[in-house]
Amino acid sequence: MNRRDLFRYSALAASLPLMAGTRLKAAQSSSRNPLLSQSNQLGWLDTTEPRAACGYTWGQPWSQGSLNADDRLQLVSEAGQPLPLQTWVTATWPDGSVKWTGHATAAGQALGQKFQVEKIDPKNRAPKAKHAIKITESDKKIVIDTGVIRCVVNTQGEVIIDEITRAKKTLLQNARFIGQRQNQAETDGEQPLQIEHFSAQIKQADIEQRGPLRAVVKLSGIHRTENGREWLPFSLRLYFYAGGDAVRISHNFIFDGDEQRDFIRALGLRFDVPQRDETYNRHVRFVGEGSGLWAESPQGITGLRRDPGQAVREAQINGIATPALNTWDKRVSERLQFIPVWNDYSLAQLNAKGFSIKKRTKAGHAWIDADQGGRASGVAYIGGASGGVLFGMRDFWQLHPTQIDIRNAGTATAQATLWIWSPDAAPMDLRFYHDGMGMDSYAKQLEGLEITYEDYEPGFGSPQGIARSSDFTLYALDATPSRERCIELADSIRAPAQIIAAPQTYLDAGIFGGLWSLPDRSTPIKKILEDRLDWSINFYQQQVDQRHWYGFWNYGDVMHTYDADRHVWRYDVGGFAWDNSELSPDLWLWYSFLRSGDARAFRLAEAMTRHNRDVDIYHLGRFAGLGTRHNVQHWGCSAKQLRISTAAYRRFHYFLTADERTGDVLWEVAEADKQLVNLLPTRKVNPSAAADKNTHIGIGTDWGSAAANWLTAWERSGDVRYKTWLENAMRVIGSNDLGFFAKGYHFDIKSKTMRVIPADPLTSGEPKRVSHLNAVFGLIEICAELIQLIDVPEFKAAWLRYGRFYSAPAAQQTAEFGVSLTGNNLTNAHSRLTAYVAQQTGDAELAKRAWSEFFREANHVPEVKRVEGPLVLNPVDEAAWVSTNDSAQWGLAAIQNLALIGNALKK
Q: Ranges for the PcRGLX/YetA-like central beta-sandwich domain (predicted)?
């Protein structure tokens, strides 16, 4: 650093606490998980062992050569007790050794705050669980026995779960997914509103895991309307843990309808709950915010004119069986028929700020308002003192409009429905938000891009092929849970516990290119950078909440750019609205988690992955395998590209959590590069390339994305053809004199071979324009892994040359190429390219240059001001200088520069 940099950042260090205030200090204290201070240690993302003690699944990395596929493993609790463990391989290193494993535990086991996975001596027996999963199959049914509950799953038809029994008592029946569609968004007075019911139909069933501790059943199919129309393909997985009393359901559907006439009015999971207890011994529970609980009986016996007795009242309030009826005060027991039985209940969460609860005695009679609250947990119970079902949905209020309905609670069979899309809300409207405004040619569309940053093209704003996932949990209980137990189980549903490894473990394993280090505040300047990294995570966490970045299709994404005049993010301005992974915020958040174990970073990154893997990617149709560039609507932009759907952003979540849905999407995009022959990303600005008989692949946003897809498929499957595609491409790039400075290459989508495009020299005498976007969609990170895994010296040389000269002084560029470069902006972001070269070559002067490039731009003091009414609707914290592009790329540059050349920062 030069003296000016040191002076400026010394001043920044002095002013930072005053400008950032207490929020930044709070962020600093929570950025590291204190339980994970040692390598090879496991713990809880949220630091505390959950009270529900259900089964858990997670992913764990291994350094190359440290674990073989036939090695046996066990879990060792904090108390030193060996515990059974189910293990499967999710990725391997090039030498065949294990790179990532997935693990599962049995339910009901105490792990402690800190624990670890160990190899078992071949001479010793593996510890056994008290219960083991048992599966039996027939032509039409799969029966899963956890040792506590027995679940009968259908392999065809409408009903997904026939029944769940516990101690031979049926607690749940006829679980199925149902919905309604209507032919228009609202009644227009010209056409009658037509409402049609539909239900899921199972077409295929697969047992993906058979235990002994975890079983996974995947069901796939379509939805069928009353008129026989088949639409909305779906897949779902049912998860079971040995010794567990719960079934978790992960449901995903793809929209393949006509957005002009197919409006989903309702969609949800419905099941029946047999009722055996007297109506006054039955109970309904709704979990609100935190430990808030709404708890009543269908036939209340408190607050009456006559008192049945304190013991009777306390029993009903506590959810246990009341004393025998003949012990009650007769003035009550002889008049029970005159106490109303409330059969129906409904909790509706139509926005992120409020829910309401209502009930009625039966259909045909008025609903009575019961209560209201802010953010419901999406968890309810229906049953009696002798048993029932506690059920719920993850991210319930975040994914509004949602709803829970309970019907017929006073009859022999109650019915519960968890609505993914509430029937009380307006129908789902996926139509494009404007009429095109006359942009019927590429020239006009490029003009539109100049003003709103929206890349519009007629017909390209289609939602056909987008998807969304929802997670449900069904607990089959042998009694009404206590109020405290309701909250414990609700915690396991609304924010599922996650086991993670110590940051040092991730680092030592050498995964994801090793482009990070642990947080280090050992010098003033490093402390400034670490505090700023913490501040950014904290700021976006606040913005999600303050700006209400919630809703069924939106939750998980963040906005792109801020509008300081209106004091809002530009939610309605073309390409400045939803970010859709633009410039890699996913990578920034995941690397932030890896280095710190920070729960805030993980939750932001996981929500973003769950959103982007479903909503921002097309899963069927003409754009299948491609993602959509940032826009007012997630599917609205006409730029359908590999750079959005790339596995580079989602592989973190899969390997860290072993989440099968994310794994599905990684396979979907494994050969998404085939779409390059159908849809050239540069078709509007380079018509000649679009007319070329050869398929064109850009070196950065295209090939880098495809390389991430191939790399992920290779390490997951071990299939050498993926390695061959990578290695061949690396040799072509490395043998080209232009290397990564080339605009692109000819590409054969069948063989995956690349060829150099002739007549692309750096010899015109004029500055050579290069793309500033090539490296900022994961190319830097993927190239670091490729160099680590595949030995192609010419590829490494080409990459080092790109890193050395991209931001080099013009004189050095001219000496190398004969011309200087232009268009090579985002200097701060690309400083990590320079840093990588410095680290690989040991060039101290280049390390200094990298830090100079890093400090040249986007290094704002994190100033935040409070903005209140009447300037805004709600009070908000504003940092008008923040953009998600800069936040993501600054964060990645800071993290990687600290890891690569942190020793060059002396003060």
A: 133-490
Could you give the CA distance from residue 30 to residue 528 in angstroms, rounded to a whole number? 16
- For 105, 469, 492, 534, 748, the CA distances from 54, given in Å and listed in that order, are 9, 22, 8, 32, 49
Share in percent of the chain as helix, strand, coil (round to 5): 30, 25, 45
The token pair at 853 is 């490039």
Alpha-carbon gap, residue 711 to 793, rounded angstroms: 18
Residue appearing with tokens 């259908």: 154
Cβ neighbours of 713 (radius 10 Å): 21
Confidence band (pLDDT; 50, 70, 90) for 6? very low
Contact between 251 and 471 under an 8 Å Cβ cutoff? The reply is: yes
The C-alpha atoms of residue 18 and residue 863 are separated, in whole angstroms, by: 9
At 233-245, the pLDDT tens digits run: 999 999 999 999 9
Contacts of 879 (CB under 8 A, 6+ apart): 539, 562, 862, 863, 864, 865
Domain boundaries, the chain: 31-130+498-509, 134-299+340-431+466-478, 535-904
Q: Per-residue b/e over 155-170, b at no fewer than 16 CB within 10 Å?
A: beebbbbbbbbbeeeb
Distances (CA, A) of 129 to 85, 243, 321: 9, 8, 33
Nearest to 211 by CA among 156, 308, 133, 315: 133
**CA torsion angle for 643, 647, 649, 651 (degrees, to 10)?**
180
Q: Which long-range contacts (CB under 8 A, 24 or more apart) does 7-12 make?
A: 8/855, 9/524, 9/525, 9/528, 9/855, 10/524, 12/528, 12/859, 12/861
Positive or negative, the CA dihedral 590, 594, 600, 606 is positive
pLDDT band at 18 (very low <50, low <70, confident <90, very high): very low
Verify cis geometry, omega within 30 degrees of 0, for the bond prior to 298.
Answer: no
| Cβ 485 vs Cβ 295: under 8 Å | no
Write down the architecture of domain 535-904 according to CATH: Alpha/alpha barrel (1.50)
For the cut 60, the answer to whether the pLDDT of residue 9 exceeds it is no
Q: Which of 684, 680, 700 is nearest to 692 (CA)?
A: 680
Torsion region of 492: left, alpha or beta (phi above 0 gives left; psi -120 to 50 gives alpha): alpha
Which tokens in the block code for residue 107?
A: 């339910």
**Do 160 and 202 contact (CB within 8 A), yes or no?**
yes
Predicted TM-score (pTM) of the model is 0.95
Of residues 180, 175, 260, 184, the one with CA closest to residue 223: 180
**Per-residue pLDDT tens over the stretch 721-750:** 999 999 999 999 999 999 999 989 999 999
Which residue has better confidence, 842 or 10? 842
Give residues with Cβ within 8 angstroms of 348, minimum separation 6.
Answer: 355, 356, 401, 402, 403, 422, 424, 425
Evaluate whether 134-299+340-431+466-478 and 535-904 have a shared fold: no
- The H or E element that residue 11 is part of is helix 3-29
Average pLDDT, the chain: 93
Nearest to 538 by CA among 580, 596, 616, 611: 596
Pairing of strands 695-698, 640-641: unpaired
541 within 8 A of 846, measured Cβ to Cβ: no
At what angle are helices 599-614 and 585-596 packed, to 10 degrees?
150
d(CA 513, CA 524): 28
Q: How far apart, in whole angstroms, are the C-alpha atoms of residue 559 and residue 544?
A: 9
Residue 88 is encoded by which pair of tokens?
């499967």
**DSSP β-ladder status, 73-76 and 82-83:** antiparallel
* Class level of CATH domain 134-299+340-431+466-478: mainly beta
Q: Within 13 Å, how many C-alpha atoms sit on residue 762's CB side?
A: 22
